[in-house]
């Protein structure tokens, strides 16, 4: 009986949520979503191609930009089949194994993007506050080590709670809140003991996303302090202009994550469309 029960659990099928009440409009809704995914995939591929083929861009700042583009490209590839699959009318169902794999990549890539943004903040801090030692501090070897550390931190730390999802008993209706799989969404459907996953996930968010954002903020406070010490206003503007695009990317990344977290935590009474919309903004807007 136990073997049969485990087999049944491991072959669970979940129903992804599109836009409730707008099913007849899916052909039209799919058009902007298809265009956005095309921009995400083609745009980031173009960034990677230009950095790879242009020798003048082979320096730390552009290596970190390439890491960011690769992360965004993978994020698009990990969700495109479920989001457009629903809108194009292929299928709203996803098996547990596929859902767990998608969860692993979505959360791992989010953590990786946060780490890359922190590395880019360190790059700007070094370039502005210690320009004479910039090339000696951020050597190609160090950039590779930073990239490998970000990759290892992003995917190794989330392995334990993601693997545990495979062995949970899902007794609640198998209806997910989004058009892709998230760890907190699967926990909501589980009837097993989820305390480890809940506490581990909270600790992981604090140790990665929260601390990354704090260090990014500190780096820009130090950058601003260094820039204001420059006598020439023209040089101040020139220094700040190199940071504006990075600050915008940081805001574009963290605001949707905070919004989605608030919706999951405090927005249970909100319309399902709000949950789906915030989820898609979280997945698509930063890339």
UniProtKB/TrEMBL annotation:
Location in the cell: Cell membrane; Membrane
Molecular function GO labels: G protein-coupled receptor activity; olfactory receptor activity
GO terms (BP aspect): cellular response to lipid
Keywords: Cell membrane, G-protein coupled receptor, Membrane, Olfaction, Receptor, Sensory transduction, Transducer, Transmembrane, Transmembrane helix
GO CC annotation terms, alphabetical: plasma membrane
Chief location bin: membrane
Membrane topology (UniProt): Multi-pass membrane protein
Xref: InterPro entries: GPCR_Rhodpsn, GPCR_Rhodpsn_7TM, Olfact_rcpt, OR51/52/56-like
Family assignment from sequence similarity: Belongs to the G-protein coupled receptor 1 family.
Protein name: Olfactory receptor
Gene name in the database record: LOC103212448
């Amino acid at each position: 009986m136990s073997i049969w029960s485990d087999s049944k659990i491991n072959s669970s099928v979940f129903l992804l949520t599109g836009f409730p009440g707008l099913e007849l409009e899916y052909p039209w809704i799919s058009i902007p979503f298809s265009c956005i995914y095309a921009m995400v995939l083609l745009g980031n591929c173009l960034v990677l191609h230009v950095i790879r083929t242009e020798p003048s861009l082979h320096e730390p700042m552009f290596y970190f930009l390439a890491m960011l583009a690769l992360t965004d490209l993978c994020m698009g590839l990990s969700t495109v089949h479920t989001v457009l699959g629903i809108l194009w009318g292929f299928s709203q169902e996803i098996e547990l194994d596929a859902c767990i794999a998608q969860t692993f990549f979505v959360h791992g890539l989010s953590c990786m993007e946060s780490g890359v943004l922190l590395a880019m903040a360190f790059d700007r801090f070094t370039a502005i506050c210690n320009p004479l030692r910039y090339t000696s501090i951020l050597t190609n070897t160090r950039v590779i080590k930073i990239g490998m550390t970000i990759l290892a931190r992003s995917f190794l730390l989330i392995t334990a709670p993601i693997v545990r999802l495979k062995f949970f008993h899902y007794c609640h209706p198998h209806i997910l809140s989004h058009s892709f799989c998230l760890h907190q969404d699967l926990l909501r459907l589980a009837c097993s003991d989820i305390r480890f996953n809940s506490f581990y996930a909270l600790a992981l968010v604090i140790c990665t996303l929260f601390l990354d954002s704090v260090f990014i903020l500190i780096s820009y406070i130090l950058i601003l302090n260094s820039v204001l010490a420059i006598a020439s206003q023209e040089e101040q503007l020139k220094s700040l202009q190199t940071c504006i695009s990075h600050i915008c990317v940081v805001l574009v990344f963290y605001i949707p994550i905070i919004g989605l977290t608030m919706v999951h935590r405090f927005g249970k009474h909100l319309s399902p469309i709000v949950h789906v919309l915030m989820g898609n903004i979280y997945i698509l807007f930063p890339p």
